[in-house]
Amino acid sequence: MNAGPFLERALRSVLDQAGDDTEVLVVDGGSTDGGVEVIHRHADRLAWWCSEPDAGQSEALNKGFARATGEYLLWLNADDLLLPGALANLAARIRQSPTRPQWLVGNMMIIDARDRIRRCLRDGAWHDFLYRHAPVRVYGPGAVFRRELFEAVGGFDPTLTYCMDTDLWLRFQRAGARYVRIDRYLWGFRQHAASKTNSGAASMEAAQAAERARMHAKNGLQIRSWNVLANRTFRLLGGAYLRAGIDTLRYRGRPV
Fold first, then answer.
1. DSSP string for 98-109
2. Which letter does DSSP use for residue 255 in this model?
3. Cβ–Cβ under 8 Å, residues 101 and 93
4. Contacts of 225 by beta carbon, 8 Å cutoff, 6+ apart
5. Is 34 left (phi over 0), alpha (psi -120 to 50) or beta?
6. Whole-angstrom Cα distance, residue 76 to residue 90?
7. Cβ distance 122 to 244 under 8 Å?
8. Residues 81 and 9 sit within 8 Å (Cβ to Cβ)
9. Is the distance from CB of 89 to CB of 17 less than 8 angstroms?
10. Could you list the pLDDT tens digit for every one of the 256 residues in the chain?
11. Please, where are the H alpha helices in 42-78?
12. Contact between residue 140 and residue 169 where contact means Cβ atoms under 8 Å apart
């Protein structure tokens, strides 16, 4: 994991809003940056935790979800935040739905190392045509889904390092699942120098691009310029860009 400087804040962002109906599990990949000490401080509120080497994030997530007993699953990266009110908003939407939704998604805020908001990102409702020809746009840990759906598609692909979430959404889609969007910010994605996806190194960017291409091919998805244009046009006409821009101006620089 090695996100020790942020783990305390990540855990608190979950535990501060977790009720009796929420179980919190922590999977640590044998970190050496003080993460285990942080986990120990909160161990009495954790349903289960471990600290042992693993083959990467996908394997760690599969391991944790295999221990989960709840109906719905949600994950959070060790350097990110679950935004205030996220669990309450998710629970309310589930209660209000006439049927138990399989998959719910929200919006995200990009935050800095000091928990200050840098940018807001939003998206719209499910669109069958677009998602037959383009990747499903869901913001990683801004999604919650039923455990039976996750298990039915086989969990995360352990061969993927960067695109395991998009790959999971595409397999949800093939299984017939359609997300329900919650018009709330749920996930605080932290950008910092040591982030897995934020190094800026050419080799890292090339590795991410190669994995995306492999993941798209695996799921039978061919990305063309018109796919990208149609997706962006849909978000523009639906107001996602405008509302995200307004929220960014409103919240930029504020602490979460």
1. SS--SEEEEEEE
2. B
3. yes
4. none
5. left
6. 15
7. yes
8. yes
9. no
10. 456 689 999 999 999 999 999 999 999 988 888 889 999 999 999 999 999 988 899 999 999 999 999 999 999 999 999 999 999 999 999 999 999 999 999 999 999 999 999 999 999 999 898 888 888 989 989 999 999 999 999 999 999 999 999 999 999 999 999 999 999 999 999 998 766 655 556 778 899 999 999 999 999 998 888 888 888 898 999 999 999 999 999 999 999 9
11. 57-67
12. no
Q: Which of 13, 178, 170, 175 is nearest to 105 (CA)?
A: 178
- In this structure, which amino acid lies at residue 86? A
* Distance, C-alpha 150 to centroid of its chain: 14
Cα separation of 106 and 89, whole Å?
A: 10
Spatial neighbors of 161 by CB under 8 A, at least 6 apart, are 56, 57, 58, 196, 207, 211
Tokens found for residue 164: 């395991």
Query: Rounded to an integer, what distance in angstroms lies between the CA atom of residue 178 and that of residue 196?
Result: 29
Give, to the nearest 10 degrees, the angle between helix 164-174 and helix 57-67.
50
